[in-house]
């Protein structure tokens, strides 16, 4: 591993005398200030927790920024193509970046770990809590670094740094993690705080660590895919559905212990929203580009000697992926409803409306995908259409002082469902027609684009 040329290159750059002197100075001064602030402390317990925060800063933020800067630096130096052509496997390149860019930082972390363990033992912190905190620090660090690498590859443009997007992603993750840490340490014994997962009781530290490692594996796999192939999505269709399935299983496990809650509808519709989050996010990470459509259809023609038909067109388009992911979500939410005293027919009608809303969002994404080759500015138009779709009915509610119009906004519809108001059959039928027609308009535009693409292929032949 240490013979990895990518790792050696980045590590040597970090250990250059001028940079090394600056980093060591900052680190030593930080250590001195931490110890000085606690000079009059009677126990070493405050130092233990302060060093924990110090480790969080180094492992979660500084290391992630180092990792993200690798690909951006290659692009800035016009060396990314050379990096891609190195006779190394994608995993060697990824590990080289992760370890090489953080070589010096890992030394600082190991030094900190000696102080951290010493202060923990001397202040009689339980061994179990120290072990759980160590596991949490390492697992979340692995997660944010793999996400940083993935984001940097995804946004490798000279004019745009991955820093802004990376900060958004990391702060989003860190806000949840730090909030959870604050909650845990407000309890009498954080190490014994548990979370229900199906019929098991797991320590929260252990559950979060396993979850972080699980998503780290997916982020790492996505990075390898992006390093190995140019202009591909993070997931292919099959693995996107597997990822969605895994997310749904995890979310179901978290909600499972609350089946016997006094507020079953709150639990059930909370499950609806939670399971919909990955189904909304993953399409943006698994879209097949328009150019890949042409490559695939060319491959079909060469291997079969026939032009691809409409069925092949649909099955190999992004639309089939969107439908497949929604079907996975639908099976989970309708299956979960069996545990509650809810009318299945009513839920199916709700699901149909949700499907139309979901496909509208996915169709906007696909329209961008198939028309961006004609105009890069089409994204602004589609965002504007999306804003109107979500907010225009709500504006009409204020203008006309008639609240039922809010149902024609996805936000208004979801709000009505979550407030446990049972929508009448007539209202749901009207909503199905409205959302179906609006979504159908976008679907027609996409279909025409697909057919034009097929005609172009036939003419080229």
Spatial strand sequence of the major β-sheet: 1-2
Largest sheet: 2 strands, antiparallel
Range of strand content = under 5%
Would you tell me the structural class of the helices and strands?
A: mainly alpha
First and last CA, distance:
49 Å
Order of helices and strands: HHHHHHHHEEHHHHHHHHHH
List segments where confidence is low: pLDDT < 50 over at least 5 consecutive residues: 158-163
Individual helix count:
18
Tell me briefly what this model is.
75% of the residues lie in helices and 2% in strands.
Descriptive notes:
With 461 residues, this protein is mainly alpha-helical. 75% of the residues lie in helices and 2% in strands. The protein has 18 helices and two strands. Strands 1-2 form a two-stranded antiparallel sheet. α3 runs antiparallel to α8 (163-184) and α14 packs antiparallel against α15 (344-371). It is globular, with a radius of gyration of 26 Å. The two termini are 49 Å apart. Mean pLDDT is 84; it is low at 158-163.
What's the structural blueprint in terms of helices and strands?
Elements: H1 5-14, H2 17-37, H3 45-76, H4 80-84, H5 90-100, H6 103-122, H7 127-154, H8 163-184, E1 194-197, E2 200-203, H9 204-228, H10 237-255, H11 264-281, H12 290-304, H13 310-315, H14 318-336, H15 344-371, H16 378-400, H17 410-418, H18 425-460
Antiparallel strand pairs: 1-2
Helix pairs in contact: 1-5, 3-6, 3-7, 3-8, 5-9, 7-8, 7-9, 10-11, 10-14, 11-14, 14-15, 15-16, 15-18
């Amino acid at each position: 591993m240490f013979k990895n040329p990518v790792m050696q290159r980045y590590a040597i750059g970090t250990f250059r005398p001028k940079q090394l002197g600056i980093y060591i100075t900052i680190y030593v001064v930080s250590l001195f200030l931490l110890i000085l602030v606690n000079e009059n402390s009677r126990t070493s317990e405050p130092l233990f927790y302060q060093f924990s925060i110090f480790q969080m800063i180094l492992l979660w933020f500084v290391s992630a920024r180092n990792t993200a800067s690798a690909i951006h630096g290659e692009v800035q130096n016009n060396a990314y193509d050379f990096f891609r052509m190195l006779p190394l496997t994608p995993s060697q390149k990824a590990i080289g970046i992760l370890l090489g860019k953080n070589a010096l930082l890992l030394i600082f972390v190991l030094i900190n770990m000696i102080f951290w363990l010493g202060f923990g033992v001397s202040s009689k912190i339980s061994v179990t809590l120290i072990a759980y905190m160590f596991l949490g620090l390492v697992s979340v660090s692995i997660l944010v670094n793999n996400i940083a690498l993935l984001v940097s590859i995804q946004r490798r443009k000279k004019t745009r740094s991955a820093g802004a997007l990376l900060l958004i992603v990391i702060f989003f993750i860190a806000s949840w993690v730090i909030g959870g840490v604050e909650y845990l340490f407000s309890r009498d014994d954080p190490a014994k705080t548990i979370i229900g997962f199906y019929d098991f009781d797991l320590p929260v530290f252990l559950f979060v660590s396993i979850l972080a490692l699980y998503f780290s594996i997916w982020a790492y796999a996505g990075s390898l895919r992006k390093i190995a192939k140019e202009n591909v999505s993070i997931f292919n269709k099959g693995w996107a559905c597997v990822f969605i399935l895994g997310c749904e299983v995890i979310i179901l496990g978290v909600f499972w212990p609350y089946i016997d809650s006094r507020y079953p509808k709150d639990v059930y519709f909370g499950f609806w929203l939670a399971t919909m989050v990955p189904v909304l996010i993953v399409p943006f990470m698994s879209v097949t580009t328009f150019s890949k459509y042409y490559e695939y259809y060319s491959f079909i023609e060469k291997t079969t000697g026939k032009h691809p038909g409409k069925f092949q067109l649909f099955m190999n388009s992004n639309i089939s992926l969107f439908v497949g992911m929604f079907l996975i979500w639908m099976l989970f939410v309708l299956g979960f409803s069996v545990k509650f005293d809810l009318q299945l027919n009513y839920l199916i009608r709700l699901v149909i409306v949700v499907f139309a809303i979901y496909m509208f969002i996915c169709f906007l994404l696909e329209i961008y995908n198939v028309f961006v080759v004609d105009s890069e500015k089409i994204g602004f138009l589609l965002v504007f259409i999306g804003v109107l779709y979500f907010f225009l009915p709500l504006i009409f509610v204020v203008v006309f002082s008639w609240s039922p119009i809010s149902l024609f906004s996805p936000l208004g519809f979801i709000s009505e469902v979550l407030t446990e108001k049972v929508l009448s059959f007539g209202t749901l039928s009207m909503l199905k027609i409205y959302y179906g027609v609006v979504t159908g308009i976008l679907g027609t535009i996409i279909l025409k684009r697909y057919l034009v693409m097929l005609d172009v292929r036939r003419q080229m032949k």
